[in-house]
Amino acid sequence: MAYQAGGQRSAPRPAPASPEAQAYLQDYATYLEAVAFPSVVLDHRWDVVLANTGFASLFRDVGPHATAQPGDNFLRFVLFHPDAASVLGDHESSWCLPMLARFAAAVERHGHDPGLQAIRRDIAQDPIMEAAYRQGLPHWIRAVGEDAVEHDGAVRPLLHPDPRWGATECRIVGETPRTLQDMGYTRLTMVLRRTPPALARRARRPRRTASHLSVVPAPEA
């Protein structure tokens, strides 16, 4: 059965309305667990619907956080958890900015969603992250191109707690069957790659001490 990483959620996810949908998710959880690589099913708010043991193992050393556990909401984890950079290599440019770009697109589609609005308020409370969202993000997208925003096919660095992997890379594979799409869900799998020598020699990055981005200068007082 799929492991819901990160401990107890702050609020339960609403179950699918129909028994058929519930049965499908139960079977899909079994299928997800057969995958060795970290794999997760998310809704449009990035709330974690299902996650396998590989996903739990990747984030097993992450400390507790009231609102940003990786097994609760993956976007909140990337943006706000002080331990995110200890697992997600090249944290800002490879993870934060692409996720912020996807979030901006989701806000355009689901602007009145209370979960997305709560994340938007939390972004606004961090002046540097707010500057990144409003000013830095459009500039970054123009500089790197729209393809950098896409998750599927992206190769991104990871710092896996299992020493057999260590500092490595993953290719993110989007593989969402129609039934999950109809439920409003997306599945992402992080296909771990054998460690390149240059990454194997790289020391682990220190953990962040604040939940903010540094790619955009803080606004002057």
Structure notes:
With 221 residues, the protein is α+β, with helices and mostly antiparallel strands. It has a single domain, classed as Beta-Lactamase (2-Layer Sandwich). It has 8 helices and 5 strands, in the order αββαααααββαβα. A 5-stranded antiparallel sheet has the order 2-1-5-4-3. α4 crosses α6.
Please supply descriptive tags for the structure shown above.
Beta-Lactamase, disordered C terminus, disordered N terminus, alpha+beta, 5-stranded antiparallel beta sheet, 221 residues, 5 strands, single chain
User: What overall form do the CA principal axes indicate?
Assistant: globular
Q: In CATH terms, what is the architecture? A: 2-Layer Sandwich
Q: What is the CATH topology descriptor?
A: Beta-Lactamase
Question: Approximately how much helix is present in the residues?
Answer: 25-40%
**SS summary, helix count:** 8
